[in-house]
Amino acid sequence: MHTLLRIKDVASKTDVAFSTSLSAKGTGDIGPFNTHVILVFRNVFVNIGNAYNPDTGHFIAPVRGAYHFEIHIYGHGHPSRPSSAALIKNGEHVVIAYEYQSSGSADSANGVTLLLEIGDDVFVRQWPNSWIYDGFNSPT
């Protein structure tokens, strides 16, 4: 699973961008869990402006502006488990990437541009009873 964000605040000339994947090394399934779980993306490719915290999984907007977020997920098909994760802003559900396949592979993506104020909190939450696979196919 990957996230990507890029913004440039023209007024203050502040660059903010981050790109991540779940695991810093190794492969494997994440979940299923019986409740929502905040996903912490430990493999940070870029974190310009240091607004993404790889210890908590939270992105805190450092400047007011339009921010574009994308989430991409992959999972193994399963008769009773989807692969899903949702983008959350200040505790409220915004969009979800969801895929259910009874066998084979399952992948989905979603994105949104949000107007954020300084201090707004954005994170990705894995849906209950879902699983996500993270492998060596992360971008480098």
From TrEMBL:
Source taxon at top rank: Eukaryota
Localization of this protein: Secreted
Signal peptide coordinates: none
Chief location category: secreted
Entry-linked Pfam families: C1q (PF00386)
Keyword Secreted: yes
Protein name: C1q domain-containing protein
